[in-house]
Design the sequence.
């Protein structure tokens, strides 16, 4: 696996990582969370939204938000978890556990939930959709932001959100649609969170989607340890890599980096409250 050889230039205004996984390490060793947070802060990424999307990760997320003031959290069952839990008969109990974690005052997100037709075949899609609908209802009942995972399932994600009636605040995490889908999401009042793939040379459609997204609907994320931005694509990602994505997003949007940072911070406070 390629290695990151140097940190990015620090951002002029501190910003937050809208979606990261401090519970996951791609090299098999547990992540040194304090070191990762310190490295991020050194380049201007001073706060993170930690997402725990299985039962073990959700428990860790609650522990992290209690111990680290720069960390807020989200909990859910990932779309690819739902069929496995359903097959073993554990899905109803898992829902109860996630709901118990989600009421924590520093857990501000229900997510990531949604649909993933890349890793789950047709036989598991019914369980995915049931789980997605349950999480939408949970977000509405608790007044939390819904962060949506959408992989190769754009039309069905939008259909389910419309069927159920979306919560007040919906974020399409690691947005992967085209400009037409971005416009549809914006028309519905959703926010779009962009990650490292906007820096990839062949992702013109994704940059076009970003370009038509109003500045006050844009968020930025790493989805670490995945989706490391250029020039370290393929290496293990971390919140400290977010400045590469921020600078790329500012260029696509035609705004300065400080302006984008200020807008993202304001949007984050409006959605999630104060850290």
Sequence:
């Amino acid at each position: 696996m390629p290695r990151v050889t140097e940190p990015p230039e620090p951002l002029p205004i501190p910003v937050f990582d809208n979606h990261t996984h401090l519970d996951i390490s791609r090299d098999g060793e547990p992540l040194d969370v304090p070191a990762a947070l310190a490295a991020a802060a050194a380049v201007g990424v001073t706060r993170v939204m930690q997402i725990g999307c299985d039962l073990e990760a959700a428990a860790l997320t609650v522990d992290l938000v209690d111990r680290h003031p720069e960390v807020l959290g989200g909990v859910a069952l990932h779309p690819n978890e739902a069929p496995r839990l359903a097959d073993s008969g554990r899905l109803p109990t898992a829902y109860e556990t996630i709901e118990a974690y989600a009421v924590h005052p520093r857990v501000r997100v229900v997510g990531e939930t949604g649909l993933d037709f890349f890793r789950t075949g047709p036989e598991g899609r019914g369980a995915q959709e049931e789980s997605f609908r349950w999480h939408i209802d949970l977000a509405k009942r608790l007044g939390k932001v819904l962060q949506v995972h959408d992989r190769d399932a754009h039309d069905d994600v939008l259909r389910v959100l419309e069927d159920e009636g979306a919560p007040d605040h919906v974020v399409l995490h690691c947005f992967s649609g085209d400009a037409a889908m971005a416009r549809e999401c914006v028309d519905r009042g959703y926010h779009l969170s962009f990650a490292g793939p906007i820096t990839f040379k062949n992702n013109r459609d994704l940059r076009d989607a970003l370009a038509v997204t109003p500045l006050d609907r844009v968020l930025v994320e790493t989805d670490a340890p995945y989706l490391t931005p250029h020039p370290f694509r393929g290496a293990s990602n971390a919140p400290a890599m977010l400045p590469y994505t921020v600078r790329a997003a500012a260029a696509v949007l035609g705004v300065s980096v400080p302006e984008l940072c200020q807008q993202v911070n304001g949007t984050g406070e409006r959605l999630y409250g104060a850290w």
Summary: The chain has a mean pLDDT of 96. The beta strands are 15-20, 45-52, 71-75, 107-116, 145-151, 170-172, 191-194, 218-220. The chain has one domain: 15-272. The radius of gyration is 17 Å.
